């Protein structure tokens, strides 16, 4: 079916099963792509919908999703329900106090794919995965990269004797997103296929504040990777024009990219 623009009623229905905050372009009818945002450890969805509003990407509707599990009470002092995470578990090193980068993301991945991406954007509204960009900060960035990595092996293997070239092309289109951005979140290896025959993901990836080893791990799994390190060493959201410009250029490039030409160039 031809894709349609989500209404407030559509978002309300989605929010009843998966808490979200949204931002629509003006006018909503100008929507040509979607940005799905994942906050970091201990945060929640409204600030990232605000980030999408501030970036004001033309023609991009934004859906900021709440983490799938609340932080345990012993970690936070605030009684307000604003602290969530994406992991199957919350593993903390007793010596350093550091949180495990890869606690497993099975529950979050299934909910996001089933409820938001497949169930809502694709099946209900008629959009394709290549109309969708992912953005994540910290642990949310890891989830975003993991979803993009896993998508490449989602469709069943196409029988080359089918003789239906259109079907084969459609299945290939469903194996990548328009783009993925991770700020400080490494690729979780628990979400990478162990198949020795796996091909690199066609989703264009943009990495901010990952170290060299973490960036190399993404380059091993994705064909098109850009990695940027800011002058400051800490991990945070962009603070000035120098930090935000490379990311905005990536978004602009992905929005105007000829994905059919990119796909045709692949063997």
Short description:
The protein is an alpha/beta fold. The chain is about 35% helix and about 15% strand.
Explain how this protein is built:
The structure is a single chain. With 267 residues, the protein is α/β, with parallel strands linked by helices. Helix content is 33%, strand content 15%. The chain has eight helices and nine strands. A seven-stranded mixed beta sheet has the order 1-3-2-6-7-8-9, with helices on both faces. Strands 4-5 form a two-stranded antiparallel ribbon. α2 links the parallel β2 and β3. The longest helix has 19 residues. The radius of gyration is 18 Å and the shape is globular. The chain starts with 7 loop residues before the first helix and ends with a helix. About 3% of the residues have low confidence.
Furnish the topology, listing elements before pairings.
Layout lengths: L7 H8 L4 E4 L9 E6 L7 H10 L4 E6 L3 E2 L13 E2 L20 H19 L7 E6 L1 H13 L13 H9 L5 E5 L21 E4 L3 H8 L5 E4 L12 H16 L2 H6 L3
